[in-house]
């Protein structure tokens, strides 16, 4: 696995790169928008990890430009910016995840592996958890099909692919058209009622499927 880490903080970039390399991931570092643009044109990566505030540009704009040229490489933003509007902009630009600084490098590693594993699931592959089975876009409970909206269905898939792992609100927002804390609570409530699954709120962190 080879990733591009775009981070203008040299110490942070080098420490993250060292940690990821220890865990079997090859890392290229870019410290600016222009350097990152050059590297993406000349190399093939399995994953991008992008800071937002770069010395010569904006990480969100960088991802928009990459998506415009049909570069769909999975992407995680890492940033000290914590306001919801910026998080939403990141997801709207095409990111799969958003981690707020400071964070544990182990969390970044887990999220990278989770996203890559998620992307390997084909549209028709079956995944299941307890009495819930998902086959393509169809959801079954005890072999009986149940109806879920697109947002509920996509969020359910993430919980089933990541059982017993806390999924942050920011992470779940990417699957919603108009994300907000209230909208997410309502979606989770409806999901629990229709599936009977035990999805718990972890105060200040997010939700977990137990």
Please identify, by name, the CATH architecture of the largest domain: 3-Layer(aba) Sandwich
**What is the radius of gyration?**
18 Å
CATH topology of the largest domain: Rossmann fold
- Residues in helix, %: 40-55%
The ordered H/E elements are: EHEHEEEHEHEHEEEEHEHHEE
The total beta strand count reads: 14
**Count of structural domains:** 2
Overall pLDDT level: 88
By DSSP (H or I, 4+ residues per run), the number of helices equals 8
**Given the C-alpha coordinates, what overall shape results?**
elongated
Largest sheet: 5 strands, parallel
Task: Give your account of this protein's structure.
The chain is of the alpha/beta class and 210 residues long. Helix content is 42%, strand content 25%. It folds into two domains: 118 residues, Response regulator (Rossmann fold), CATH 3.40.50; 84 residues, Orthogonal Bundle (Arc Repressor Mutant, subunit A). It contains eight helices and 14 strands. The model has no long low-confidence stretch (mean pLDDT 88). The strands form four sheets. The protein has a five-stranded parallel beta sheet, with helices on both faces. A hairpin with a 2-residue loop joins strand 4 and strand 5.
């Amino acid at each position: 696995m080879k990733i591009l880490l775009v981070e203008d903080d040299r110490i942070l970039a080098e420490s993250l790169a060292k940690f990821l390399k220890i865990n079997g991931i090859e890392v290229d570092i870019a410290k600016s928008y222009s350097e990152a643009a050059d590297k993406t044109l000349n190399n093939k990566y399995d994953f991008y990890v992008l800071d937002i505030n770069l010395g010569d540009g904006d990480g969100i704009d960088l991802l928009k430009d990459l998506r415009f040229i049909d570069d769909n490489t999975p992407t995680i933003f890492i940033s000290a910016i914590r306001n919801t509007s910026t998080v939403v902009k990141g997801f709207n630009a095409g990111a799969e995840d958003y981690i707020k600084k400071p964070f544990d490098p182990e969390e970044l590693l887990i999220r990278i592996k989770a996203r890559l594993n998620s992307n390997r699931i084909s549209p028709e592959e079956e995944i299941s958890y307890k009495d819930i089975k998902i086959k393509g876009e169809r959801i079954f409970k005890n072999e009986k099909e149940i109806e879920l909206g697109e947002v509920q269905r996509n969020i359910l898939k993430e919980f089933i692919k990541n059982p017993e792992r806390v999924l942050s609100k920011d992470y779940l927002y990417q699957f919603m058209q108009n994300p907000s804390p209230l909208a997410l609570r309502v979606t989770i409530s409806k999901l629990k009622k229709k599936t009977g699954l035990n999805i718990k709120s972890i105060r200040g962190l997010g939700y977990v499927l137990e």
